[in-house]
Amino acid sequence: MTLLEVENLKKYFPVQKGVLNRTVGYVKAVDDVSFSLKRGETLGLVGESGCGKTTVGRCLLRLIEPTAGRVAFNGQNLLELDRGEMINIRASFQIIFQDPFSSLNPRMNVGDIIAEPIRNHLKISRAETRQRVAHLMHRVGLHTATMNRYPHEFSGGQRQRIGIARALALNPKVIVCDEPVSALDVSIQAQVINLLAQLQEQLDLSYLFIAHDLSVVEHISDRVAVMYLGRIVEVATAEALYSNPLHPYSQALMSAVPIPDPDLRREKILLPGDVPSPFNPPPGCNFHPRCFARQDRCSREIPILRDVGDGHQVACHL
Amino acid sequence: MTGNAEPLLRVENLYTRFDTLDGVVTAVDGIDFDVHAGETLGLVGESGCGKSVTALSILRLLRCPPARIEGRILFGGRDLLQLDADAVRSVRGSEISMIFQEPMTSLNPVLTIGEQVAEGVRLHQQLSRRKSWQRAVEMLQKVQIPSPEARAAQYPHKFSGGMRQRAMIAMALSCGPKLILADEPTTALDVTIQAQIMSLMMQLKQELNTAIVLITHDLGIVAETASRVIVMYAGQIMEEAPVRDLFKDPRHPYTRGLLGSVPVIGRGKRPNRRLQEIPGMVPSPLQMPAGCRFNPRCPQVTPRCCHEAPPIVTLGEHRRVSCWLEAV
Q1: The pTM is what?
Q2: Contact B191 A257 (CB under 8 A)
Q3: Mind listing the pLDDT tens digit for each residue in B252-308?
Q4: In whole angstroms, what is the distance from residue B166 CA to residue B146 CA?
Q5: Which residue of B has its CA nearest to A265?
Q6: ipTM above 0.85, yes or no
Q7: Nearest CA to B165 among A213, A274, A259?
Q8: How far apart are CA B168 and CA B113, in angstroms?
Q9: Is A215 at the interface with chain B, CB within 8 A?
């Protein structure tokens, strides 16, 4: 069952210059992105810095107002809701941020941080709230005795658990996980990934898992969408994307991931140059200046995301 | 492999302590290792394990006090810890150089890239400004920066992250050092750029026969580039082994834990999605556990581990591990 349907989502940031702040152009951070998320599914969203993956996550929750598009959640278009309705919807639609150091208010104790969404959305007594907070803390593996402590007293992994408990407070259906483990050390990263997987099973959650670490994304996701310069270039199941990446960018990205096995000697596809500026993206397929398989038409026509069977979608002329 | 030749760098019994308001923090706690000419030694561990402090201690880049460095660091027949400030400066950058993690903060924003690359050459090889500038342009070309003449005259903010790291590599290689300490050289970069930079570093290393100490937390990078690996935890060396042995037959429970906790791409569909985790977290440097430092998190802990520090057990010619399980 499709829970979330995103169609033609766009976010253009205006670039203003001069004394009159005239708009001289737009940065197309997210340009015509469509995807869907089923109930209980994890969709990975990968790409390099600046490709727009975080902006997509924030647009879904309208933390950033999208320029155009449609975000249907249970059949309801979120982009048409007024402020009050949107706030109500956010109870079932939560986000976990990347940096557990800056996303928790340093002046609030952990109990209050986790209780805040409950107090805002539900009319329940103090005692009940407290009980619920204790239950949430237990669920994410925090000692309830630490309820009165402040964020600085916790390690990075524990802070991320606090962020997860806060996101779970209102029994959401969808959680946008924006680089939830990239600030953590590997041993702690494994703990948090396992926790997220376990919560998903217990609570029937759907995740949009945004990350740049392909190994993590492949591990946790059912399907993966690869982004480059504001567009989705490929969507496939995690297995298909690894064993048979179709887009040249996905191929290069997959080959560039270092694998902890000294016996494995793979040919790496080295892409020339850097990601171009999103203010002035190349015409046609925006990957063509770095592509090893480009043809003439790639610099003229924008390829459309099309299905090549079994739900494997790719945006490439080849 | 390593051979029996005299090592290029020998670190003996290195202790680096910091005096803080809360007490003495021992960031590096009695480590020994060798680096041989032309090899790539991987130094891995999680944040706070002392890997960066080790590199900074070797080049004496730590302010003393609050830092106190003890032990011996033998390089070219001298103990770097006994040299005076001028003598250390003549080693830094010319014989041993360093590549830092963050190319944004380790370049000077008010000097052009060319000036920064040329500075080392000018000071160490006593070249004129003009000659050293030419050398800088050559180096930028060597690290494959397009139109190096024009780029040399630009400031760091005009460079992308990958280009800045290339400039850092040019700077590190400009005097033809025998050893490069690369501290997380690609951590701040995207994977495709990381692949470019690692391939460039390895290619130049071959060409110039420079030894590299590669400090990283990424086991994938170590597997792909290093010939030998040292695993550090809480300021101590847990295990040292040739790269293949370490990955195929890890002997220390911490090494096994680390290898188990990273997801590996392409390992197939996981019916059992769990990663192996290392419970708990790295101990505070102010309250190190007694005995083996890993004992509170170790799945194979024995009563002895909790009060007696394990010996360093040598396994064959090139391996050692600091664990009671291996001590017979």
Answers
A1: 0.86
A2: yes
A3: 999 999 998 888 887 655 556 678 888 888 888 888 888 899 999 999 989 989 998
A4: 11
A5: B224
A6: no
A7: A274
A8: 9
A9: yes
